[in-house]
Write a structure and sequence with these properties.
Blueprint lengths: L5 E2 L10 H8 L16 H20 L7 E4 L2 H15 L6 E5 L4 H12 L3 E5 L9 H7 L4 E5 L13 H10 L3 E5 L18 E5 L10 E5 L27 H37 L4 E3 L10 E6 L4 H7 L3 E2 L15 H5 L4 H5 L1 E5 L6 H21 L8 H7 L4 E8 L6 E9 L2 E10 L2 H14 L12 H8 L6 H17 L2
């Protein structure tokens, strides 16, 4: 069996489709169309022709015209161009924006930047389903509101917003409307010709194109609302200067054309895969579907698992490539701000996984993934102090062999919960068992201490302290506080020692 993990993180990025890679390869070498599209010679004209065709392909995916597309380095740059460009260009008309707490950081961070420049931003809180009703947007509008920015599909929970309803509202109030469609383009039908949107951002690497290229759709009537945020060269009608990356743009165009052709059938297939995986996971019990009750994009399934710690779950699922949230936040130890905005507490948000299936996912992979998650959630729940049956047989047998003392620290509402059981005879530990809910380092140190405790006397309990354990087990310094809970549990055992 292959040791390569099953890839279930298509919402973070997609592999380049081989058909796209072939098109890109024809724009890289001397015998291909590698020229600078701004050059007047034959090589430049060939590259320009390639880009012109790609522009129409990209526009075609969202029902736009080629001259309404501005190429960028990705949706992040497109979002920045739309938000910063519109806000700064129209500051004399108003300095208020509306967005939501569950937007991608590529929207939230530009808004935070504008707040430092004297703008005010209203951050809407979604309903528990993740939806933001148009009425909530209407209530947030002010006479000085100049821009509303709300994503079409949430990147963590896959909920599809009522973009048409929100856009209609904005247009009626004379407010510009921008939508981050990075997770929507190529996944759900989009028609910029009929949708009441002024600016729409999307990117190639979410739809089987290359990283490093994206686009901003600008409605012709909204061009006067936008100003560039970078300067030099005059490319892209002056909105986004810089030598055009022919191979990336050609790849983007090819990916959009394929996505448009395959979208109807692929949407049905991915929905079936998503529901197939959910049938495995829901059978566990104690799982919550994030975004339940709302329309969701076919390929994303976000689930919160009760009674487990998220980092330990992900660490145990080495045969799967899954996410605990947005890829841009993966280095953060904090629970998903999107799930927190939906009302999930920090522990439940932290024990959530985002599964995203895609073009190359197969039924057998979904079945294997479901079985792996069921296996590890069941195992981790059995290790937890919340489990009434964990170790019951062993503890019962121990009762015949000596006295048992137990001690615990932390609790079910905290990030670390540890309970030790010591089998003692006289002044000596004969054996030790532990139940723990916590990160992988917590579980590792607790299990290691059980081995170290055997044969120790009451006076030598515990063996060393958290700093010593951290050094022995290579625990990061930021996890030291969790080892203090282990120490407290062992001290509680000492207090119970007769």
């Amino acid at each position: 069996m292959s040791t390569t993990p099953i890839y279930l993180d298509y919402a973070a990025t997609t592999p380049v489709d081989p058909r796209v890679a072939t098109e890109m390869g024809a724009c890289l070498t001397l015998d291909g169309d590698f020229g600078n599209a701004s050059s007047g010679h034959e090589f430049g004209r060939a590259a320009a022709a390639r880009i012109a065709r790609a522009r129409e392909q990209v526009a075609g995916l969202i029902g736009a015209h080629g001259d309404e597309i501005i190429f960028t380095s990705g949706a992040t740059e497109s979002n920045n161009l739309a938000i910063l460009g519109v806000a700064r260009a129209n500051a004399d008309r108003g300095r208020h924006l509306v967005t939501s707490r569950t937007e991608h950081k590529a929207v939230l961070d530009p808004c935070k930047r504008l707040e430092k420049e004297g703008f005010s931003v209203t951050y809407l809180t979604p309903e528990r389903s993740g939806l933001i009703p148009p009425a909530a947007v209407a209530a947030a509008l002010r006479p000085d509101t100049q821009l509303v920015s709300l994503m079409c599909v949430n990147n963590e929970i896959g909920v599809v917003q009522d973009i048409a309803g929100i856009g209609t509202l904005c247009r009626a109030h004379g407010v510009a409307f921008h939508s981050d469609c990075a997770q929507a383009a190529g996944k759900v039908p989009l028609d910029a010709g009929t949708l009441p949107v002024d600016f729409l951002s999307f990117t190639a690497h979410k739809l089987y194109g290359p990283k490093g290229v994206g686009a901003l759709y600008v409605r012709p009537g909204a061009r006067g609302l936008l100003q560039p945020v970078t300067y030099g060269g005059g490319q892209e009608q002056g909105w986004r200067p810089g030598t055009l990356a022919t191979h990336q743009i050609v790849g983007f165009g090819s990916a959009c054309e394929i996505a448009a052709a395959e979208l109807p059938a692929e949407a049905v297939r991915l929905t079936a895969l998503r529901e197939r995986l959910w049938s495995h996971l829901s059978a566990l019990g104690g799982v919550q579907l994030n975004g339940e009750g709302a329309r969701r994009v076919p390929g994303i399934l976000n689930v919160s698992f009760e009674g487990v710690e998220g980092e330990s779950l992900v660490s145990a699922l080495r045969e799967l490539a899954v996410s605990t949230g947005a890829a841009c936040n993966s280095a953060s130890a904090e629970a998903s701000y999107v799930l927190r905005a939906l009302g999930r507490d920090a522990l439940l948000a932290g024990s959530s996984l985002r599964f995203s299936v895609g073009r190359f996912t197969r039924d057998s992979e979904v079945d294997r993934a479901g079985a792996a998650v069921v296996r590890e959630v069941t195992r981790l729940r059995a290790l937890s102090p919340a489990s009434s049956v964990a170790g019951a047989a062993e503890l019962g047998a121990w009762g015949e062999a000596g006295r048992i003392v137990s001690g615990e620290a932390g609790g079910p509402k905290e990030e670390t919960w540890v309970r030790f059981h010591l089998l003692i005879e006289g002044d000596t530990v004969k054996d030790a068992r532990v139940q723990a809910l916590g990160c992988p380092h917590t579980l590792d140190v607790a299990a290691w201490l059980c081995r170290e405790l055997r044969g120790r006397t009451r006076g030598a309990l515990p063996p060393g302290g958290p700093a010593d354990w951290a050094a022995s087990r290579s625990v990061p310094v930021e996890k030291l506080g969790r080892l203090l809970v282990i120490e407290d549990a062992l001290r509680a055992c000492s207090l119970q020692w007769p």
